[in-house]
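Form P-L/3: holo structure prediction, ligand iron/sulfur cluster.
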Amino acid sequence: MQKLSDFKDDINKCSKCGLCQSVCPVYKITGNDCAVSRGKFVMLDGVLKGDLKLSKNIEKYLDLCLKCGKCTNFCPSAIDVCKIFETAKYEYAKNTFLGKFIFFLQSKYIFGNFIKIFKIITIPFRKKHKSKPDSKLKVLYFKGCVNNLCPRTDNYIRKIFKNSNIEIIEKDFDCCGQPFLSSGNLERFEEVKQHNLKMLDCDFDYLLTDCASCESTLKQYMDANFISLGELILKENIKFKFPKPLKVTFHKPCHLENDDFLEPLLKNCENIEYIKMENYDDCCGFAGEFAIKNNKISREISSKKAENILKTEADYVITTCPACILGLYQGLAGKKNPPEPVSLTDFLAKAEIK
Ligand code: SF4
Ligand code: SF4
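OUTPUT (holo model):
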């Protein structure tokens, strides 16, 4: 496991140019340099030089980050800021009472068993998997924690591909590890990583995900041929007919690398008009722990997002991450005639599949 001191050179690569300020959603709201990577690097440099101690105050600023990665994508030095913040967080949290308690709650005994129990009790509500031995394409489906808790999306995926010659393979994957990274629980992250890597030991063409955050986390440690649900639907040329005309818009999750599938896929949907919203890739402001620890800022970011959504006058705002759906609901709460936030899978399952 890497230590904060291993990132000394990366931290020193920061030229303090301040370009990250122009893309950081938290900086845009707070105007606080400690909210953005540059300010955090100044503090962490002080820690590495022994001038500062990793303290509750520094942890507060490490938590003041959505882990959206926008600064990394924009940084001329291409510094992987999230990795550095997660490592610093781990070094602080592992020695505190609260940190140890959160790590215990995230352990395989508590969080792991909680998901396992849900997997078992939802079995009767899940459509039976029909084996298609002559299928052209074998996809290994990474279901993710939300779909393990709730069988609806899982069933919808089977409905969407019912006429396709696809074999959907299921394995006993653990969580992708994103919530553990956010809390700095690097030990638990390593545990799920090792478990998930073992699940790849089977014959498959693509690793299918329907959550942008899961996919982006898995890509940190898996060398596989990834395909998102939208990309697979497009590849299979599945067409949809909605019973009445609807206007839709799309929120691009920060962790969704590629949304090239979206417009061609929506063109395959009869009765659907797509309206691209202004700044459609602006963060929704949720990001799990961030929404709890920095609730006021989280709400402000969500509310800014909601203003652009409302301008489209859409009936639905589609996205591909369950956490973003919560952020969209947070922003649209109390607004007049808001569109309904919905996952791509749940939205397409409302149509007749042709
Ligand atoms: S953009 Fe990169 S190099 Fe510039 S201040 Fe931000 S973190 Fe440092
Ligand atoms: S990851 Fe996102 S929220 Fe965190 S510092 Fe970078 S731009 Fe700001």
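COMMENT: The mean pLDDT is 94.
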